[in-house]
Amino acid sequence: MVNMGASSAGPADARGAEISAGLDAVHQRLRRAxxxxxxxxxxxxxxxxxxxxxxxxxxxxxxxxxxxFGEAREQEATPKVAELRALRPHSHPRWxxxxxxxxxxxxxxxxxxxxxxxxxxxxxxxxLGRAAGKSLEEGERSTPLEVLIQVSLDDDPTxxxxxxxxxxxxxxxxxxxxxxxxxGLMAVAPRxxxxxxxxxxxxxxxxxxxxxxxxxxxLSAGMSLDLEAAVRHGSTCVRVGTALLGSRxxxxx
Length: 253
Fold this sequence. Notes:
Layout: H1 11-37, E1 45-49, H2 55-63, E2 68-71, H3 74-87, E3 94-97, H4 106-112, E4 115-119, H5 122-137, E5 145-150, H6 167-176, E6 180-186, H7 195-212, E7 218-220, H8 227-232, E8 237-240, H9 242-245
Parallel strand pairs: 1-2, 1-8, 2-3, 3-4, 4-5, 5-6, 6-7
C-alpha cells in the first residue's frame, strides 16, 4: 500500500514550504525591528533579493504576497522576468536592479526595471536616461525609471557606490536627467564595521539630500545580517536574500 502522507509531497511543495517559512521569519524580524524603533511596520518595504534563484522561487513569493524583487545581473534577470510573466501572467511585480550595472546593459534593464538602486556615476545616469527615454518612446514602459544613488560608506571602490564627496553632484545630475526620477539613496554597510555607525552616517547623508530633493524619500539599507540596525536608522527598504530563500543558488549558465 502506498503511503499518501507527508512523504508524498514533491520537491516543489517542499520548496514552497521552505520559502513560506523563510518569509514568515523575515516578517517577524521586521515587525520586531519596527516596533523597537517606534516605526510603523508598513514604513519598511521588504525587497526579496532573488538573484541566483530560479523564477519558480519568485513565483512562490508572488503567491505569498511579495511584490518587489531584486536582481543583480541583467543576463540572469531579463529571462527570469520573462519566465515569471509566463508563470504568473496576472502579477505585476516591481523589479529592482542591485549591484554594479554596465552601461551597455541599460537598454535591456530599462525594458523591465522599476528602479535601479546601484547608480554611482554620471555616465551610468546618462545611459539610463537615454535607455528609459527609448523605452518610453516605444511603449515598453509608461513611467520614468526610478534611481537611487549608491553611496560608498568606506570609499572602497570594489564594493560599488560613489564617494561621499561626489554625492551632491550625482544627485543633482539624477534629478535633472530626462526620463529618470531620483528617489533616494542606497548603501551597503562596510565589512567588519558597526552597522549602527554605518547606517547612522548614511541617514545623515540622506537627510541632507532630502533638504534639496524632498521627493527622494527612499533609503535602501539593510540586508539579512543587519536589517535591524538599518531599520533603527530610517531604512525604508531592506534587501533580503539569504534569510528568505536560503543558500541554494541556481547553477550558473
